[in-house]
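User: I'm putting together notes for a lab meeting next week and I want to include a structural view of one of the chains we've been expressing. I don't have a solved structure, so I'd like a prediction I can at least talk through. The sequence is below, exactly as it appears in our construct file.
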Amino acid sequence: MAMRFYSQKIAKIVTVLVLAVLFSLLLVEKTDLTTSDLGRHIKNGEIILTGSFSEKWGVLTTNFYSYIQAKQGFVNHHWGSGVVFFILQKLFGFAGLSIIYLFLFLATAGLFFYFTKKESDWFWAGALSLIFLPLITYRGEVRPEIFTYLFSGVFYVLLWHWHKGKIGHKKLLVLPIILLFWVNFHIGFVFGLFLIGAFGIDQLVKYKRKKPNGFRQLSVIGGLSAAALIINPNFVKGLLYPFNIFREYGYAIVENQSILDVHRLNFNSGIPLGAFYFVLAVLILSFVLLLIRSPGKISLANAIIAFAFAVLAIFGVRNFTVFALFALPISAINFKQGFSFPVHKAYKYLVLMIGGIIILVGMVFIYKGIKQKFNGSGFGLALETEKSLEFLRQNKIEGPIFNNYDVGGYLIYGGYDVFVDNRPEAYSVSFFEDTYVPMQQEEAKWEQVDKQYNFNAIFFSHRDFTPWAQDFLIARVKDNNWAPVYADDYNIIFLKKNTKNIGIIQEYYIPPENFQVVPY
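Assistant: Thanks for the context. Below is the predicted structure for the 520-residue chain, given as structure tokens.
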């Protein structure tokens, strides 16, 4: 008996360790600072902690870094994350920041796993985790949304335990306190209100007689939570921002595309669509099974949450991770309850078959994920990502700089004012439609805008594979008014041929014949 106990304990420890190792291998990747948002987040934190009042206010409420739309209103909904990232990067460097981010993500995933294990069992928690890991770790770059994953997990666990009568409603008073931070760390704070609402509907529909005070108690918590969300630099505007952000969103980016758009545009490189479809199928199967076996055990709150996050994931691939995190406990609870009472022997074989298929397919997706990330895995920055910034600084290259969308955050990190950066919501729709894209497509428009702003340099990611960007780069290489002086694996720099730049051009000029067009 004792031997069996220790064997089970060892098996559980091994399961956790294996999952943690696989999670880490799938998650860790070096940061490509040239196209990442991280540089801008760090600069936000630096200014908020060390800048003047006007600079702080500019970062929080305006398009502070742009020299062409600096007065454009902007709701900075992630400034708190920037402060955290800046402090950690200052103390421990980029490698240390990556390691701390890994442990924070591990703690978040561990919270969901522990809850899943407690509410189902080791078998379902372990088996399902394998297939969910590639989706959970899909967005492994250091991002503010880690706080949404963590806070969402805390909300869900507390609300579930209250819902089951394991804790009193007074312990839910911590939720508005969490939202005080959440609303200033990431736009995903709206999920907190949604989770409260999902359990509130459950109380109202199913448990009014059984727990008559439940809905009223949760309504009070919801009211306090909504009040807490107003405590942000943009007040009510900040509270409502999740519902307004896409009203002025003039530039399409991959992470905001629906699954149908990803297929239509044939841009599915690095997006784990296969893993998503399988996880979605497992989630649906768990509800169908429970509906057949014991429909009265279906949690209305879980059904609402599962449906909402599935829809979000279908209409925006950036939501794959939060969908997978919630699908894990919900699927496991459904499977466990579907087989929680004496069943025919055939059902036991069905359980083993379902679990076996999940484990097998999960390992296939995990292998693909690790293989895909292998070359870029590790901590800190990708190789030589800071070299192009060093070139600007060492040669004291002045602006105005025309840059493309992808590298805006990188230049902001370097302390430069930008033409545009990777925040579509910070710029007007007309800017993208009437200026940014046309000036890369039409030579006359380029000359008009160049004359207006008198660009001294062009800083561009040659990995921008939009048709207009590639046409623009080809045109600039052939343009006698501009000289390419720097190129690496990430970026290319052109200088205008003028007296200010003549010395740098003479030293670093790259002949046009050194460039070639490579099909994407």
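A couple of points you could mention at the meeting. The CA atoms of residues 60 and 233 lie 7 Å apart. The longest strand covers residues 482-487.

User: Perfect, that's what I needed.
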